[in-house]
């Protein structure tokens, strides 16, 4: 079974147990994917996040998903590029912390956005290297979660991830629709 999937589109529409959001350390929402997640989940999310903050770069927290279709939201704090060091280790830590939370909560599927590449300024190609390397290593050594989706909202990021996964000769599949994860393929 192929455990890594790639999807271009809105992470909030994916049929997964948990979505990861690229959070800030205060866990209060903001712009980009985190702002969209907070808007769609509703005001209860902010209240839940306030109880878990602060969350340093390289770590993650989990909350219920409230008004979203998934069960949980994992709030991963990536590094601010050029400020938080060592950037690659902190970014990898955010992915690993999220995957540990998925396992601890018996989640079968989790979807990641491109963490730290928006307002935090992490170069997309370099962030992709860290993300793919971390996820491939996890999937190679751990049986859970059963599915990890790398979700790219931007078509340029999707091409970067497609090229990286193909170059690495990684077994993955592309999802054509948000609910394709659980279809055969």
From TrEMBL:
<feature type="domain" description="Macro">
    <location>
        <begin position="1"/>
        <end position="169"/>
    </location>
</feature>
<dbReference type="InterPro" id="IPR002589">
    <property type="entry name" value="Macro_dom"/>
</dbReference>
<dbReference type="Pfam" id="PF01661">
    <property type="entry name" value="Macro"/>
</dbReference>
<keyword id="KW-0378">Hydrolase</keyword>
<protein>
    <submittedName>
        <fullName>O-acetyl-ADP-ribose deacetylase</fullName>
        <ecNumber>3.5.1.-</ecNumber>
    </submittedName>
</protein>
<dbReference type="GO" id="GO:0016787">
    <property type="term" value="F:hydrolase activity"/>
</dbReference>
<dbReference type="InterPro" id="IPR043472">
    <property type="entry name" value="Macro_dom-like"/>
</dbReference>
């Amino acid at each position: 079974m192929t455990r890594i999937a790639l999807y271009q589109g809105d992470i909030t529409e994916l049929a997964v147990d948990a979505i990861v959001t690229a959070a800030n350390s205060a866990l209060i929402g903001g712009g980009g994917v985190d702002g969209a997640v907070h808007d769609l989940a509703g005001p209860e999310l902010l209240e839940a996040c306030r109880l878990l903050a602060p969350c340093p770069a390289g770590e993650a927290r989990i909350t219920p998903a409230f008004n979203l279709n998934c069960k949980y939201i994992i709030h991963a704090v990536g590094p601010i590029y050029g400020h938080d060091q060592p950037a690659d280790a902190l970014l990898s830590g955010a992915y690993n912390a999220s995957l540990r939370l998925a396992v601890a909560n018996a989640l079968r599927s989790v979807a990641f956005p491109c963490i730290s590449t928006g307002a935090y300024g992490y170069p997309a190609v370099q962030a992709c290297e860290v993300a793919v390397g971390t996820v491939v290593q996890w999937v190679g050594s751990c049986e859970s979660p059963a599915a990890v989706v790398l979700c790219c909202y931007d078509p340029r990021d999707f091409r970067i991830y497609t090229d990286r996964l193909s170059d690495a000769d990684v077994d993955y599949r592309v999802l054509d629709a948000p609910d394709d994860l659980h279809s055969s393929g």
